[in-house]
Write the structure tokens for this entry.
Amino acid sequence: MVVGEITEDKDVVVIGGGPGGYHAAIRAARLGRQVTLIEREDLGGTCLNKGCIPSKVFTHFAQEFKKMKHLKEMGMEFGEVEANLSTLQHYKNKKISQLRTGVESLCKANKVEVVKGSASFLSESRIGVENGHEFSLFNFKEAIVATGGDFYYPEGIKFDSDRILKEREIFQLKDIPEELIIYGADYISLETASVFSILGSRVTLVLDGEFSFDSAITKELSRQLKKQKINVIKDSQLRAVIERDGHLMVELEKEIGETISIEGSHFVMSGQVRPNLSELGLDRLPLEITEQGYIRTDREGRTSIPHIWAIGDATEGPSLAVKAIKQGKVAAEAMAGLKVEVDLQFVPTVVQMSPPIAYAGLTEEEARKEGYSVTVSENPVRGNGYAQLTEEKDGFVKVVSDIETDVVLGIHMMGMGAVELITTGVLGLEMAARDEDYRFPLYPHPSMNESLLEAVEGLKDDAVHMPPRKKELAR
């Protein structure tokens, strides 16, 4: 390593070029700051290059593949349809490259200086950046830590085989697994299970915990997993994965102490996300860290050192790109003196399985626990005319509301279009909307949007396409 003799002065330094980092960099640049963005790998971070985008290429492919039967029924004629993962990999890599080029172009257009290398703090106002044999020193006025997170796995599980995979590696396969065992209960595990079941794998989903959904979603999800012939094993802890003669033996321990073994051709595990902070030199700073190892921030993203900010997986909260993007913009705006903050109360959570899941706000159980006088309404998607003609009849929309104030507390959806429609739900939740606020606008017809309207109307038993509520007998 050759240490440079010159220390360069920088205005704003953003460490990490993932979705949170590059949004922060571009927003700060547009607000008049001179921005240097430091990234050790590729712009776009894990989300664009390894996680969100690659996995969504597969979920989109599976959803389109599933439509083939319906399209034939409608009269679309074509030969036998097969899933070619080699071609899909080529498509995936092309799209990643295009999107990454787009991010690079945006940084250039906004005059964001991009520096390749690994950054570490040397003091409260100086960082070093190492790139191979080169080492640069920067003095900065303000810095944003956007280093993201990484997955961690139980000790003893060795990922030393092309059949024992981490969650990102499963989307690099060029052949469809014959028998796929998935370990996890998060959205990544559900998406993986749905994708490869549709593409022809015999899938076993081993749940290492409980789903965090509303009870109605969990019930419908169980039905959908059974419908897709996904074998589900609950309440199990992983003990070992052993490869023998091209096959895998996965040993599990049930809560009652029973040990079981299942066999498959491939195994994939979803790890636990932890912040990427170990090589950042934070021990040189009087920076406040939480007990869980996150950088503590206020609602603007400011750390205990006023001119250093942190966003994304480096901070507490859900490990989601939507959180990082919002935090990145807010940190940049707060630097410019704007009155902004991040409120994570209504973070939209989505699962891009088939059918998709999307929700925001309180579950029915959470609302009751918090002391609300709860009423709920569920509108099955099969009652929607557009769902019928598109053969997307699985799922429902559930609305959780407070009887005393009519304020909507939570919206939970499962069905085609849920991911797009949840934005309407989030907007209403942020505005503390009552059911009348959802009912007043006109909804396009025919469309999936009407499922949300009728679910809200159902709170007052006014939904036309839902049967009347049963009246409680007087006691």
Observations:
- The mean pLDDT is 94.
- The radius of gyration is 25 Å.
